[in-house]
Specification:
It is a single chain. The two termini are about 20 Å apart. With about 160 residues, this protein is mainly beta. It has two helices and 13 strands; from the N terminus they run ββββββββββααβββ. Bound molecules: fe (ii) ion.
């Protein structure tokens, strides 16, 4: 619940607002993010009141991962993006880390197999784990005062995050 609204998030849409009593769907709400294809998880910054959301997009420099930092009053949104390049395969991520200064995306070597998906295989079962490729940690400055960068590390699976 935020600003009197109950939200339901999915993996690549604007969230829906729900009736707080019946939970009936009311309408989509972009929460101040233009063209939202937001992931299900977000973080609240208890110090600033900001809400931090994220998405993964495709495009000429795709895939790219963005953090959307919505001010406490909901009036401004700052976007921080790391574009990984067209030759980088899509990594499945479901959650992320937020600290006072940074946002980190844990780019695990789990790759959706679109051929399997087209055959009706469930999404989780379509993931192709390539441990030899390692995990990449994409780190973005919330203030934008440091260019996004990647740290490579051993392969690890991450579903959810806590305590960044
Ligand atoms: Fe989740």
């Amino acid at each position: 619940m935020r600003n009197g609204k109950v939200y339901a998030f999915d993996e690549d849409h604007a969230p829906w607002t729900l009736d707080p009593v019946t939970l009936e769907s009311i309408a989509t709400d972009n929460i101040g993010v233009s063209d939202p294809e937001l992931k299900a998880h977000f973080r609240m910054d208890a110090q600033t009141g900001e809400r931090v959301l994220f998405d993964t997009l495709f495009g000429p420099d795709s895939p790219s991962h963005s953090a959307h930092i919505v001010s406490a009053d909901g009036r401004t949104t700052t976007r921080r993006t790391i574009a990984l390049g067209a030759d980088v395969p899509l990594t499945y991520i479901h959650d992320f880390f937020v600290t006072a200064s940074s946002v980190m995306f844990h780019l695990q070597p789990a790759f959706p197999d679109f051929a399997k998906l087209s055959q009706g295989v469930a999404f989780a079962r379509s993931l192709d784990w390539k441990s030899e490729q390692g995990t990449k940690l994409a780190i973005l400055s919330r203030a934008g005062d440091v260019d996004p960068f990647i740290v490579e590390t051993d392969s690890r699976w991450m579903w959810h995050s806590v305590n960044a």
